[in-house]
Request: fold
Amino acid sequence: MLTDGIYRHTYTATASDITPLYRLTPNAMLMYFQDSFARLMTIHHVAAFDIVKQRRMWVVTEVQIDVMPTVTYWSEDFTVEIWVSELTPLRIYCDFRIVRKDRSLSGHLQGENAQLIASGTSQWNILHLDTRRLESTDFLARHLTVVPRLTTAGHKKVRLPQTLAADIQTEHRVTPLDLDFNLHVSNRSYVSIALLTMPDHILATQTLTSLVVHWLHETYLGDTLTCCMAQTDDGRCLHTLTNERGTVVCQLMSRWQPLPETPEVSEVLNRDL
Reply:
């Protein structure tokens, strides 16, 4: 549904979308956000399959997500709200929110954002397939509605720290399961690969509170990625993925906090469907 430039689509959580602590996984948040972005662009006739006719393609280069400690159970509905918040000569910024049930921007959240699952912003560019250069966004102005008043965060680029000495280092050889339909590593796969460097005891007892991702270079089947995780002085985790040529292809910054309490499984089993 598109209203006043804001697109809303409701999804149903599946078992694979949820962590053992009953939170949406980072992969799920990215998947549903990107799916909603594609649906919004389809409505405006500038989806990937529309602009490829002009030898153009969409490229997402950055996303910032603030994650709330909101439980999400299997089979529960949640809504993604997405809108274009800024259009510059070379960049498109889309902000988004993920909310439980039918709560939306047009209503009022109760209990200090109790129903808010996540919110954030993203940066996109248009790439010319032949020249591999960024294209002007001028042609999008007549298609897209900009809703600047609802910006959830500033659009100043988040500068990540220089690569730090690694606390954990692993290697990952790209498999067919990591690829998207363009035959290079998908955006979500980079995040999943990077977060494999998180220690098990943190994943079991803490919840993700924020994530910044910079996608920098493409990676292909058979490439080997060196994955390093280093903790900063303020407790954040810097994840750096480097290819065999020493080029950083993706960087993430994640922040975690201890869970006050893990929901009982009976809350899931007794929930009305």
